[in-house]
Amino acid sequence: MKKTNTIFVSGNTAESDEFIPLIADGDDNFQVELPEGNIIPILPLRNIVLFPGIVLPVSIGRKKSLRLIKDVYKKEGFLGAIAQKEINVEEPEIKDLHTTGTIAQILRILEMPDGSTTVILQGKKRFNIKDIVESNPYWKAQVELIDDKKPVKNDHEFKPLIEAIKDLASKVIKKSGNIAPENAFAIKNIENNTFLVNFICSNFNINVKEKQELLQIDDLKLRSYKLLEVLTEEYQLLEIKTSIQSKAKKGIDQQQREYYLQQQMKTIQDELGGSAQEQEIKELRAKASKKKWSDNVKEIVNKEIDKLERLGQHSSDYSVQSNYVQTLIDLPWNEYSKDNFNLKRAQKVLDREHFGMEKVKERILEHLAVLKLKGNMKSPIICLYGPPGVGKTSLGKSIAESLGRKYVRVSLGGLNDEAEIRGHRRTYIGAMPGRIIDGIKKAGTSNPVFILDEIDKVGSDSFKGDPSSALLEVLDPEQNVAFHDNYIDIDYDLSNVMFVATANDLNTISRPLLDRMELIDISGYILEEKMEIAKKFLIPKQMENHGIAHLAKEIKFPNSTIEKIIDSYTRESGVRQLDKQIAKIMRKLAYKLALEEELPKEISPKDLKDLLGTEVYNRDIYQGNEYPGVVTGLAWTPVGGEILFIETSLRHSKTPKLTLTGNLGDVMKESATLALEYIHAHAQDFGIDEKVFEETSIHLHVPEGATPKDGPSAGITMATSIASALTGKKVKKGLAMTGEITLRGKVLPVGGIKEKILAAKRSGITEIILCKDNEKDIKEINELYIKGLTFHYVDTVKDVLKIALV
């Protein structure tokens, strides 16, 4: 009678993990009767290799596999279990499977509590696939059975080989923490050598690739030698791991547990013949030897590297010192990009990217010309100021490209910590260099074009210092030759950096900082300029962004359509809102294209209602001169020029007074009081009865009371409004004005002239009254901006009223 031992080893039954092998110790000559033609179903196994004599539970997840096992189980037949080459393939093809597998019999099918299905397979004999005969509903193949070639009975070498495998397997089980100890007992009691080899191949931590190689070896003796080789390698790895853990554990106490992994890494690298610290120091010295720094800086850096070398890798100061040295070496000391002195190319680059902006382009070309002739000069500090959306920030990229320099941008909006500019001292945890030095490091050269965006929005904090004061050293050509960053603690030369600051409102910039910069005004665009920008830049860009660039020649945007978008859907000095409206149109066109609807050949003005909705703005917002006391003024705001209306009404009253409404600031309130006093003092000159002032209350109002308003430029507008109401004379049609007044009636000049002119043109104004001293500002403006406007230059309020009142 045959002796049978059934051995169970605990494990996970998941398809992709270790499995629970069972072995019946007995005759390994399994009888397998295959169907006619040796054609059997093929079951792909993921991360599993089934050996003859081994019983494995396999979790079935694929629909094809589930159908296969149910069909085979009903017929009490056999299947071919074969391993996948790649475990990540969800639906394997025949090319994804090995050609050698094991004939298996289904012992039982189990429906698990979680709804999954597990099948218990017993391996019978090895086979090779000869040919694939079917692919649906699952793979079927013609196979050829393979018999193991066993050693001869008198082979004196085979028995010691099996004993060596048993001993080594027992040692591996003892060293390893994830092989069940019961396996050692099983190995000692398995008498059949074939089963023993197959059991160890199946149950030990051997990867799928090596298991498949073992299965494919026909000679049992050669398979045993290969198994001994694999076990030897596994045992050596376990010994090294144990040694590493033992050495690392010696230096660990309660406070050092967090460094456990670093200790292991150090031990591993010691075994390999070198520590990470030595390698890092070697790399730092190699990088330092290639730098172009001065003798002073070189000496400091070498001292810091020596200091880093003396520190232990697990010292709390090591990472701080390492980061500091790395920062010093990464900075581009005395490394400069070569300027491109081709002035014609620079002009083309600037014209290609930006329309207009003649002053800025002229200034850049002048700088490039001086560099070309002199070879070296301190870079200028330029401040581009103007309303949003006119291209100040994007101009920085064009400047960098035209000069052939690297481009760096730092946004200063909301910055309220001085350390963001000067850096943190290294004594602080998490210290880092300031944004200036960090930007230079990212650029990789010491002469980039450095954009300081939104410099007018720098904040201040009494606790964290004043960043705008820290910028004084950065933006002073006489001081930034030796800029001191608290982190690197070595003077750095910024004189070759071309700083370009951008701002919307100069009034919020400190006067010392403003004094250090060369101011260039970038005003808003007139209608004609916006149309050119839309045609040349915005429409092609948005077509590209929305995936319809190939339709650029098929869909036309007439000038009348672009003009309608500008007038009726935007109210701005720049083109940002115009860009958004054009993007909205492109989205609609892309949507129609995606639905395969026919696109229009031309976008006409009447199409805009469907594409953009109802008109947002009415171009003709000028309210005319139908009522005395209503005057159109011109105002400057950070987002461009605007027109505003000043209205005056009279009311009979026994207690005359001046009432001001419209959310006015102190300066405008003073201007209104000043205007009334002047008109009262010169009432006879204007034909106004003195009794009017004794019997009439005057109410002066500026519409849109939700918007705060302040500034001196409404002086003559208020005086004209009061005079118009008191005299009953209407104001001349199509007229607007701006200017400050004195108590003597003198008209003073004001700023923001170009923005105010653009606002007047947008609103249909044809005549503008200005102070005579503002005539020089008009002469500097391009004729395109003032086309169609008539200017009246005045000295006194009397001059204003002569022109304004009809």
Calculate Rg over CA atoms.
44 Å
What coarse outline follows from CA principal-axis ratios?
elongated
Largest sheet: 5 strands, mixed, barrel
Secondary-structure content class: alpha/beta
CATH topology of the largest domain: Rossmann fold
CATH superfamily of the largest domain: P-loop containing nucleotide triphosphate hydrolases
CATH class of the largest domain: Alpha Beta
Instruction: Give the termini distance in whole angstroms.
Output: 133 Å
What's the number of extended β-strand segments?
Answer: 23
The CATH architecture of the largest domain would be 3-Layer(aba) Sandwich
* Average pLDDT, all residues: 84
The low-confidence parts are 1-21
How would you describe this structure to a colleague?
The protein folds into 6 domains: 29-146, Archaeosine Trna-guanine Transglycosylase, Chain: A, domain 4 (Roll); 158-245, Methane Monooxygenase Hydroxylase, Chain G, domain 1 (Up-down Bundle), CATH 1.20.58.1480; 275-330; 343-521, P-loop containing nucleotide triphosphate hydrolases (Rossmann fold), CATH 3.40.50.300; 527-612, Helicase, Ruva Protein, domain 3; 630-804, Ribosomal Protein S5, domain 2 (2-Layer Sandwich). Helix content is 40%, strand content 17%. The chain has a 5-stranded mixed barrel with strand order 2-4-5-6-7. A 5-stranded parallel beta sheet has the order 9-10-13-8-14, sandwiched between helices. Strands 15-16-18-17 form a 4-stranded mixed beta sheet. Strand 20 and strand 21 form a beta hairpin. Helix 8 runs antiparallel to helix 9, helix 18 (527-545) packs parallel to helix 20 (576-594) and helix 24 (715-727) crosses helix 28 (797-804).
